[in-house]
Amino acid sequence: MSFLAKYIGQKVKRTEDPRLIQGIGHYVDDIKLADTLHVVILRSPYAHARINAINTDAAKRVPGVVAVYTGADVAGKVGNVPCAMAHPELKVPAFGVLAQTKVFFVGHPVAAVVAQNKYQARDAADLIDVDYEPLDVVSDGEKAAQPDSPVIHEEFGTNIALVHNAGVGDIDAAFAQADKIVTQRLVHQRLAPISIEPRGVLAQYFPGEHQLNLWSSTQIPHLMRTQVSLMLGMPENRVRVVTPEVGGGFGCKLNVYAEEALLGWIAMQLHKPVKWIEGRRENFQATIHGRGQTGTVQVAVKNDGTLLGLKYDVIADIGAYHQLLTPAIPTLTGLMLSGCYKIPAISMKCTEVFTNKMSTDAYRGAGRPEATYLVERLMDCVARELNMDPVELRRKNFPQPDEFPFTTACGVIYDSGDYEKALSKALTIADYQKLRDEQKAARAAGRVMGIGVSTYVEICAMGPSAAMPAGGWESATIRVEPTGKVTVLTGVSPHGQGEETAFAQIVGDMLGIDMNDVLVVHGDTAVVQYGIGTFGSRGLAVGGAALVCATEKVVKKAKKLAAHLLGADEASLTFEDGKFVGAPDDKSLTIQEVALAAHTAASLPEDFEPGLTATHFFEPKNFTFPSGTHICVVEIDRETGELEIKRYIAVDDCGNQINPLIVAGQVHGGIAQGLAQALFEEVVYDENGQLLTGELMDYAVPKAHQLPRYELDHTVTPTPVNPLGAKGVGEAGTIGSTPAVANAVIDALAPFGVKHVDLPLRPEKLWRMMHN
Amino acid sequence: MRLAGGVLPKVCMCGTHILSLHPQRKEEQRVKISLSINGTQHEADIEPRFLLVHLIRDVIGLTGTHIGCETSICGACTVLLDGKPVKSCAVLAVQANGGQVTTIEGLAKDGQLHPMQEAFWECHGLQCGYCTPGMIMAACGLLKETPNPSEEEIRHGLEGNICRCTGYQHIVDAVKYAADKMVA
Ligand code: FES
Ligand code: FES
Q1: d(CA A134, CA B118)
Q2: Where is the domain boundary, A572, A590, A618?
Q3: What residues are in contact with ligand 2 under a 6 Å CB criterion?
């Protein structure tokens, strides 16, 4: 259908913001129910230990304490924390909501204290006496894979959870034909997602109705409802999950944790509302981490720079247990090892190993940053080996726009792309040649300057259901109410992405109405039809696509009624700017008038259902593949190792943009997180499995003065996969930026003979590189 | 620090505030305080260890002030105490006795947004909105000290506040926008 784009493509201010800038939105902890009890979870201070005994007597005597529960109380009553990946060879240890006989990581939940207020609950938790018998700790992923390593889950006799092979093409032939083979070992350090709102759950149970309400800070309300109902043995239709305002997710709330079911169960025991709000230390210990891969990459290449093959042999240190998607994340790496290049043969062997740490899972990018980082880092290594400009090497191996859809040796089909366009735009903005000249001059003057380029492609709009563990479609319902106001119910669950605005823009334009007349409702399983949620850059590209289809249905239905009311032939009517026109005598009807008539139902065509509502479940036929070029310019202080980002240029292509303001925000935030991986952040466990970065003072989330001003531009290559032509943009910045920064730093250090340094590139490390 | 009865308080890692006391402490240890929040006088009868942020959120019921760490790092809990930005998770409620507190809810006047709120909206200075109240209060404090800050001064002035969503650029733009409006 065609319409006037009054809102789409405009920098529309967000409709979410007025409540948020006034502090009157409601996050989980802001919801206050009368008589709510507070839960504090006692967690293991040991990475691996046997629990010989737990004494909760003293804790129970603390004034205000209502109950204390341990593993024995929940055994057989609450199901295990779920893992969504089904694979015949995958080893899945039973992950109870409270530890049974052993603890397997620092932060493993051991007991839950329920009290009238959180001070009392904390006091009481301090008095629980647990007799732990420490066991051998496995904290290093590579060592965990060795046959002589202590075994964490004895029932398996090995720490290897899964060996995953990926890639197609004749890899041996590719390497046999190579003029050069470039090999590099790379570490993708563990990261903590750090949403500024930690996790939190509020549970309320009505015994008469046998109804459980859960408010949870999550990205996936419906999937959570399903899983929690299974864990509690509750009928799914008697569990309602409400996702109020969510203070950031970045993947860490794309999960079902022990606490959701545990709180539900406690509410059902006590018949009182119970609330648990995660502390920041708990958040570091017991909310999923991201990345955590160590591997070796080999690239086979001709002397002229033609890429022939790529091999990646990697250990993924997944932690002690599977959370929802833990074992699936490294497999996503295997989908994107071709980067934006033609590589005829690719092979990956990924060994996923258990260690005595918190689980890894989806963190912004989820498996794809690892792929992009290694491909882009290797492109620089190869260029250096061949004495080629890194830009020329990239260019030489790009598939051309007319080669799309482009099938890679990872078995995925890139929908559309024009990699050269974004690259040349970025080079122009940066004035690349001039930068290289400046670099020469800087080096001659003894200064340490580097230029890093990354040309990335990512796999987004998750995704076709066949490729997803729990469905990849998305749903939308649109209701034109009797007064003409429009209500949208979406299955996605935004938590900062601004879909309340973007979806209202779409409907405003498609129905030719004021976008302020559109209310977008999400995150309440009692109100919204089943949906999948917000992650994998899918909100707009899949959820928005569902909305477009639903809106088309509603217009089609309205047209039938309009024709009836106008005494016109349906085929002669057109819907323009909110009105059905083209009837005899120039009569017309607005969508609001039709909506009223559809509800009063005084005169309807034959077989016409009253009301003006439509629902659509959109199943994408493919993923989308956003791409772009990032360029970073750094200078390093020779004396201190202190690094300054002189410039940061990002040219991204996320297809059609609905709201460029929101797109820019997503790119900025993404770059900040990718750059933080390159320069600052790292989750560190010591050899005893103790978490050394357990608070924000030890884990370096960057502040405003540590980040540069980003220079943004974009190209537009629409996707044919969905009716919006939008590819998704939530993860692009994170995926593109880490290698751009790393390449810039390593380029700066080239005169010191440095070929590679593992992240994060902190000043001390850089200083050592320059002074060795 | 030693409290009555020779009880050692358990403090958080940064040492700035008390996480929990030995529970054998006397129940009657409560203190009466009186303070103004957004222009309204409030009385409260609280434990000495009670944090200002908990008073604001859980006793007074103003939940716009958020908690992101309780260790005085993230700045989500920033409020103005006697006109100066403080992290209300690092202030005991008793320390605010007799003081004047302004929270995010106290910024808009007569249904009119404060210029800093306007600016965050205009410049897309927020995404999930969780850091936003603290960020806005800190920015208001910054402009009191430095009414016309440079980008550098804004970035350094906000170093006590973490935003995980925006990458800060739009926040910096918002503070500049508000500063221009407020001096004009
Ligand atoms: S909650 Fe107070 S600084 Fe983080
Ligand atoms: S807007 Fe989400 S943390 Fe700042």
Answers
A1: 55
A2: A618
A3: A 196, 248, 496; B 126-132, 163-166
CA gap A319, A569 in Å, rounded = 65
Q: Which of A13, A27, A707 sits opposite B167 (nearest CB)?
A: A707
Complex-level ipTM: 0.97
Whichever domain contains A590, its CATH number is 3.30.365.10
Cα of B92 to ligand 2 centre, how many Å? 26
Q: In this structure, are A601 and A481 located in the same domain? A: yes
Tens of pLDDT along A531-554? 999 999 999 999 999 999 999 999
State which of A267, A286, A305 marks the end of a domain.
A286
Check which CATH number belongs to the domain holding A35 and give it.
Answer: 3.90.1170.50
At B16 the pLDDT is 42
Domain count, chain A: 3
Q: Does B113 touch chain A (CB under 8 A)?
A: yes
Position A83 pLDDT exceeds 90: yes
* pLDDT level of residue A463 (50, 70, 90 thresholds): confident
Residues A406 and A315 in one domain: yes
To test the contact with chain B by mutation, choose from A117, A122, A196, A630 the residue with the greatest count of B C-beta atoms within 10 A, namely: A196
Range of the domain at A552: 17-24+473-618
CA of A31 to the centre of ligand 1 (A): 19
Cα→Cα distances A170→A412, A432, A567, B28, B124, Å: 17, 37, 67, 78, 49
pLDDT confidence bin for B5, thresholds 50/70/90: very low
Tell me the pLDDT tens digit for each residue of A670-688: 999 999 999 999 999 999 9
Is the minimum CB–CB distance between B159 and chain A shorter than 8 Å?
Answer: yes
Show the domains of chain B with their CATH numbers: 18-106 (3.10.20.30), 115-183 (1.10.150.120)
C-beta separation of A249 from A195 below 8 A = yes
Q: How far is C-alpha B123 from the chain's CA centre?
A: 22
Contacts (Cβ under 8 Å, ≥6 apart) of B154: A704, B139, B142, B172, B175, B176
Number of C-beta neighbours around residue B43 at 10 A: 8
Residues of chain A neighbouring B122 (CB-CB closer than 8 A): 13
Residues in chain A: 772
> Contact B23/A122, CB-based, under 8 Å?
no
Q: Give me the helices (H) in chain B, please.
A: 52-54, 115-122, 132-145, 151-157, 169-183
Each residue's pLDDT tens digit, A117-135: 999 999 999 999 999 999 9
**Residues A388 and A509 placed together within one structural domain of the fold:** no
* pLDDT tens sequence across B130-164: 999 999 999 999 999 999 999 999 999 999 999 99
The A residues from 153 to 172 touching B (CB cutoff 8 Å) are none
Nearest residue in B to A497, CA atom: B127
- A contacts of B90 (beta carbons < 8 Å): none
Kindly state whether residues A40 and A130 are assigned to the same domain: yes
Ligand nearest to the CA of B54: 1
A4 belongs to a structural domain: no
Q: Which atom of ligand 2 is nearest to the CA of A247?
A: 2
User: Is A741 among the domain residues?
Assistant: yes
